[in-house]
Amino acid sequence: MHKDDGWAEESCAPASVPLALRRVLGLVISGEATNRAELARRSGLARSTVGQQVENLVGNGILQEVESRRSVRGRPPRVLTISPQAGTVVAVDVDTTASHVAIADLSRRLIAQDTVAVRIDAGPRIVLDAVAELLRRLLAEYDRDPGRLREVVVGLPGPVDFQQGCAVQPTGMPGWDGYPVAEHLRERFRAPVVVDNDVNLMALGEAEQGGAETPLLCIKIASGIGAGLVTAGGDVYRGADGAAGDIGHTRAVSGGNVLCVCGNVGCVGAIASHRAVLRGLGIPESTDDDPLYGTRVLAQRVADSDPAALHAVRQAATEVGEVVAVLVHMFNPRSIILAGPLSELRDDLVSAVRAAVYQRALPLATRKLTITATQLKGRSGLHGGIALATRDVFGPAGIARLLADEPGAGG
Questions:
Q1: Domain containing 27 — which CATH number?
Q2: Which PANTHER family match (predicted)?
Q3: Buried b / exposed e across 179-214, counting CB within 10 Å, b at 16+?
Q4: Per the domain annotation, does 408 fall within a domain?
Q5: How confident is the model over 218-249, as pLDDT tens digits?
């Protein structure tokens, strides 16, 4: 259980959930078994035990048993699925110019998503209150019971203390350092809240929803540069203090004396981020009327094959590729996914990163490596947040709360 959940340990103890029930539920969640006969065969449990646990799960509104739509002779078979009304999970992706909110049921089916256009430099209270207001509206509009809100996962664009639920010394986020993000939202929704780095969630989303092979590195090139790593076992690697993947402050090969927002000089984020490319081309990042002005202008210039724009993007990609080559030697990933505004500009970014990695990294580390742009566009972080939330909900502590049907108890 995450320390920031705020629930009494005794009410969520794994021992309170029977092993047989966890086994039955796990087989249904994974899709390995869809009816009672398959459950008995795959679990090794007696049919009577399976029947007892199924009745328990159906009675608590976690599973539903419905007639199959398959065309068969005689009586249609009954199949077990997660009940659409078992609960709701929420993913929040906080970005520099806006925050994106998505709600899903426990089968990870996306129900709705929307955006609130509040800049991150407005401060945590204003941003989080706007997110909370949007979330309440979505829950009401799509008839989702707020009392069955099972978990909220928030992605922040900076280092995060995963256990405490707050950002730690983030750059470009005034007022966010140490602010209790998890507590702020937990008080408003009486549900567990988890806070993570946004690129960690993007990496998880690419592995879970995008189907990319693991180990997986996701590189986000936006106002800064960050990386998320999903291990071969499907877990996010966060490091000892939540600083893993903060590669934007790695010294660039040709960084020179360019000053970074962190106070050091020559950081790769200072010369190769989306913001740095815009600055080098003299393109304003935003205007009063259009917060994405710079993104749109750069995209148009690249589409028009503007030589200066193409050179700037390729040079930035080469610098990023040099850093990624080091990561390839350290972690030997199977997949590298490039995300952020620059990744959507034709194939120039991907091609230049790929060229730098293959030139610098040894063949053993690259022989089965794939480097591609994200296919989920701006949705990978939301998908990752939903995946992380449902993992928690169906963990031992989460199942205990489901059975108690008191998601707000102890908050």
A1: 1.10.10.10
A2: GLUCOKINASE, ROK (REPRESSOR, ORF, KINASE) FAMILY
A3: bbbbbbbbebbbbbbbbbbbbbbbbbbbbbbbebeb
A4: no
A5: 999 999 999 999 999 999 999 988 889 999 99
Evaluate whether residue 186 is within a structural domain: yes
| Same domain (yes/no): 352, 231 | yes
Looking at the fold, whether 151 and 291 belong to one and the same domain comes out as no
pTM of the model: 0.90
Does residue 181 share a domain with residue 62?
no
- How does pLDDT run across 9-49, given as a tens digit for each residue? 334 444 478 899 999 999 999 899 999 999 999 999 999 99
Give Cα 147 to chain centroid, integer Å. 24
In a domain, 401, yes or no: no
**pLDDT greater than 90 at residue 141:** yes
Domain that holds residue 138: 88-202+381-395
Is the pLDDT confidence value at 69 over 80?
A: no
Same domain, 109 and 159: yes
